[in-house]
Amino acid sequence: YEERLDFKTADPRKAVEEAKRRAAGLEFYELDGIDIRSRDGRLLIRPSNTEPLVRVKMESYTKEGLEALRKLLVQLLGRALATPSEAPPPGRARPRKRSGLRRRGGGWRKG
After folding, report:
1. In the structure, what pLDDT confidence band is assigned to residue 96 with cuts at 50, 70 and 90?
2. Label partner for 71 (CA 20 to 30 A): which of 32, 43, 60, 103?
């Protein structure tokens, strides 16, 4: 089971630092956020480098484990992040501007 969430916040790095402070009693890894691994599964909390978002990924072998990770997430982030953002989840296509070039007759042409 896997779940990905994006949370809007004014200062994503500050929110992740607060989560690190609250996770002081837990064993976790630090790369670009915090990566907590437990018997329930894995919880990764990191700031986005391009948007004012905190990105969260939870992975577990069971539904119960995923629910336990959700509860841990609430404890770590608290009210700092009230609701998930409207941003599309990672891995989904995002709207992009078209260049105006189209493939026609063996080559790229304008229009």
Report:
1. very low
2. 32
